[in-house]
Design a protein that fits this description.
The chain is mostly helical and about 90 residues long. It has helices spanning about 20-30, 35, 40-60, 65-85.
Amino acid sequence: MENQYQQPTQTHTVIVKSTKSVGVAILLSFFFGPFGMLYSTIAGGLIMMVVDGLAFFLTAGLGLFLTFPIGIVWAAVAASNYNKNLGR
């Protein structure tokens, strides 16, 4: 006797992404500047490359004392936001 009630087949797709370490983002941006920021935010790293380049040439390097810490904080916030958005 055939089963007249068949269960519908469902396909679920699961996408797995790993988190980004905030500590690693801070260390990379501290040691490598905007190149280290590419770990946590590609757009932010590219923007800070331009900003740091301008700051270096327009202020004889003194502007980097302001822009470099901004890049480190930006990298940490970007990694944290990336991790928060994974849960959604």
